[in-house]
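User: tokens in, sequence out, please.
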């Protein structure tokens, strides 16, 4: 049996919005507004009613009722049944024309993003909107749509656009009945077919989402009710023949599972968007509808999933569904814009490819399994495909967002997770080749969550489903969703050993031993109290170097902390010095080193000829050096004691450039006594984005605004000072090792990210890095003491996510120190 067959571990990405809207309202703000009578509530489907008192001109005067149908949603408006090519203009309550869309060949139009000034475009072609000053459709009343090409003018409205906090009448959830199939070790139940578990769940705006319900094997787990989890994404979680990995594992361990496709994907209705508020509200509605099913234990549900379905959990939990028991997000991103623009530099590799893949799969017929559902007679799925040409071409759309849009904070998880009030189990890898490590910058933001358990490690995107953390994932679900003392079923230990070994390509893997043997099944409260007394942050070191073979997902040692970043971390500064040295003392003499832009670096990853192998225990690595003169390098003397860093390092650079647009990559590596070099972590910054958000930054965490108003072009020949954050990381440097810092153009030091450089034509501009008493470039490290480090250096190669190679000493090119 293939436990995780067809496992797709691609990353989630980005949300766009415009520049001049208010921040997302919190649940408390919504409650206060309701109490004051300021929120209209449940008018999503109502295109009748009175305009507000402060409405502008009467947009219905002299008009006739439109023949088309308006479907308002959460920060969206959709029209169906219009005349193909009809110019449909959306007006707000003040009478301002927002955007005219030409209906598509099916008479459809969809509003979600708006230009700063009114214009007319073809519906579905949002690349025509000037993205730099665009904005999103916002909650409000009194909207009207007019077709002014007719005589008399046809109009519909006024109607209301919902916000995320406009919750529907609970009767919407109570009225829905979902049916499932048995998904046992020996196949389906007698007389069942896969499509017997295929359902549609109705959202507050009437959109129906496809859902697949599977029950665990009754031979081992009885007839229910069952602890239940939801897996929700824009991939294929409702695929009737292939459950997503989180659902598959949970099913085998005794959970009912519900896989739900986001709107505009799979067989779901609506228009696809990437992390838009409608999807967040849908997450709330899904949870509430599923929790009311009679086969759900305790009337509450959990959520599972890695990557896209992990990110979706955080957005859904932000809406505070009352029936959400717990979430288990794994391998997630943080801020969606910065995922596409790390350091303000366009990610022309994995992230761009992921967006293009989402565009393709969300298109009509973009996922072949939906053809099978339609062929079986599902007319709902077939009807939903018609609206897919309203999906936005995000590949073209997002590539133009070189500055941080004002509304993007509404979809930025660090701004939202503080409102989550359900227990959270979150895992992630510092070297995650897909989503990166910025997730760690929000690990201290879960202010309302009653329990937060965090497991972080060196490793890869898929490691959330490895033995490294899988047993603890199960413990968490058992305690907070099933509400019972965790015990891995013996038959699952046997199956797990086979399947984990098969998937990760290493024999001898399996679940960790049960940790709750001291508690009886009746001592749930005691077991929960013991679990919650453990430190919430678990940091695993040297994953890949402790198993039965190099690269096996097992760690050598671990450390726990009361919070992340570690509260006792101390700052330690190293200064860039002459002769390529990294020293404890700032410079006393003026000096400089120079490097040329490397035009080949941006497209060069560290993978070899075999490319990106998701599950291979050891990657095929071709980690290339920068050509002579195209990087500067600084190395410490051998350490006299172990040095453990945990947190967010940064590098302050003082640069003079020949160009007006400069991108910088800083990379921290370890050089061992045997002259082996190991990649630790990198960071990036487009120097024009050097403005720092002081309120969000601290000694270790450097946060740039990336906003257009703060962008400062580099002036050729003038000194630019910037702090370049290195992504969060935890790493143990043993006595005898050396730290190396490399400053260069972006590229070569990442697995899947590629970086689009400035257009320099045929030139290679020279950058000069200063190391003078007036401009001392430096590396700042978060150091934790008292950590018992495992003896001996890990084998090379072995550490997951961390390539290694022979160390090549470099001689920096001298640079010219500008006159004072």
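Assistant: Sequence out:
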């Amino acid at each position: 049996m293939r436990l995780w067959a067809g496992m797709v571990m691609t990353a989630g990405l980005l949300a766009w919005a415009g520049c001049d809207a208010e921040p997302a309202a919190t649940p408390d703000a919504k409650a206060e507004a309701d109490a004051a009578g300021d929120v209209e509530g449940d008018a999503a489907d109502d295109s009748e009613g009175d305009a507000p008192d402060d409405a502008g001109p009467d947009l219905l005067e002299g008009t006739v009722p439109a023949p088309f149908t308006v479907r308002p949603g959460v920060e969206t408006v959709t029209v169906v049944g219009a005349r193909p090519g009809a110019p449909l203009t959306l007006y707000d309550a003040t009478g301002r024309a927002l955007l005219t869309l030409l209906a598509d060949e099916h008479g459809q139009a969809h509003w979600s993003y708006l230009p700063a000034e009114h214009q007319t475009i073809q519906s579905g072609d949002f690349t025509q909107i000037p993205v730099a000053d665009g904005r999103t459709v916002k909650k409000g009343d009194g909207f009207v749509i007019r077709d002014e090409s007719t005589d008399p003018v046809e109009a519909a409205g006024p109607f209301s656009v919902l916000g995320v906090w406009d919750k529907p009448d609970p009767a919407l959830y109570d009225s829905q009945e979902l049916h499932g199939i048995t998904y046992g070790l020996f196949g389906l139940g007698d007389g069942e077919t896969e499509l017997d578990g295929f359902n549609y769940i109705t959202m507050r705006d009437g959109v129906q989402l496809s859902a697949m319900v599977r029950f665990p094997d009754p031979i081992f787990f009885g007839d229910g009710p069952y602890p239940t989890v939801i897996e929700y994404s824009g991939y294929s979680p409702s695929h009737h023949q292939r459950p997503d990995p989180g659902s598959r594992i949970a099913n085998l361990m005794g959970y009912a599972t519900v896989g739900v496709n986001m709107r505009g994907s799979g067989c779901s209705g609506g228009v696809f968007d990437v992390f838009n508020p409608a999807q967040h509200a849908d997450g709330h509605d899904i949870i509430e509808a599923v929790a009311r099913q009679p086969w759900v234990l305790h009337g509450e549900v959990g959520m599972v999933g890695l990557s896209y379905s992990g990110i979706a959990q955080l957005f859904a939990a932000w809406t505070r569904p009352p029936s959400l028991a717990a979430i288990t997000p794994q391998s997630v991103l943080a801020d969606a814009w910065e995922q596409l623009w790390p350091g303000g530099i366009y990610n022309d590799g994995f992230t761009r490819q992921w967006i293009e893949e989402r565009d393709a799969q969300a298109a009509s017929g973009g996922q072949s399994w939906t053809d099978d559902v339609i062929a079986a007679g599902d007319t709902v799925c077939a009807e939903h495909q018609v609206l897919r040409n309203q999906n936005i071409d995000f590949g073209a759309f997002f590539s133009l967002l070189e500055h941080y849009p004002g509304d993007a904070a509404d979809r930025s998880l660090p701004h939202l997770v503080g409102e989550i009030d359900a227990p959270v189990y979150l895992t992630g890898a510092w070297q995650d080749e897909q989503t990166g490590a910025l997730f760690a910058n929000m690990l201290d933001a879960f202010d309302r969550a009653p329990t937060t358990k965090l497991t972080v490690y060196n490793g890869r995107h898929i490691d959330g489903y490895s033995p490294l953390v899988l047993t603890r994932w199960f413990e968490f679900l058992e305690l907070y969703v099933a509400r019972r003392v965790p015990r891995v079923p013996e038959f699952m230990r046997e199956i797990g050993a086979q399947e984990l070994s098969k998937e990760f390509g290493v024999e001898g893997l399996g679940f960790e031993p049960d940790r709750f043997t001291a508690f009886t099944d009746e001592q749930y409260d005691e077991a929960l109290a013991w679990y919650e007394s453990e430190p919430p942050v678990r940091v695993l070191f040297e994953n890949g170097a402790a198993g039965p073979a190099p690269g096996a997902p097992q760690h050598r040692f671990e450390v726990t902390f009361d919070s992340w970043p570690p509260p006792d971390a101390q700052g330690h500064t190293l200064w860039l010095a002459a002769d390529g040295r990294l020293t404890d003392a700032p410079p006393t003499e003026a000096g400089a080193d120079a490097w040329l832009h490397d035009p080949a670096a941006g497209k060069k990853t560290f993978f070899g000829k075999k490319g990106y192998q998701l599950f291979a225990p050891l990657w095929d690595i071709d980690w290339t050096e920068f050509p002579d003169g195209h990087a500067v390098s600084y190395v410490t003397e051998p350490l006299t004691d172990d040095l453990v860093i945990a947190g967010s390092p940064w590098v302050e650079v003082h640069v003079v450039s020949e160009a007006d647009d400069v991108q910088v990559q800083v990379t921290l590596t370890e050089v061992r006594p045997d002259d082996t070099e190991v990649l630790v972590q990198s960071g990036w910054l487009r120097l024009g984005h050097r403005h720092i958000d002081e309120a969000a930054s601290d000694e270790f965490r450097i946060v740039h605004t990336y906003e257009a108003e703060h962008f400062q072009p580099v002036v050729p020949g003038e000194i630019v000072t910037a702090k370049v954050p290195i992504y969060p990381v935890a790493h143990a440097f043993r006595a005898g090792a050396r730290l190396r810092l490399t400053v260069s153009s972006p590229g070569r030091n990442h697995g899947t990210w590629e970086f689009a450089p400035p257009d320099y034509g045929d030139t290679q501009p020279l950058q000069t890095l200063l190391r003078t008493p007036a401009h001392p470039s430096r590396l700042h490290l978060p150091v934790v003491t008292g950590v018992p480090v495992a003896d001996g250096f890990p084998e090379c190669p072995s550490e997951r996510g961390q390539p290694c190679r022979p160390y090549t000493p470099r001689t920096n090119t001298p640079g010219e120190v500008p006159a004072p």
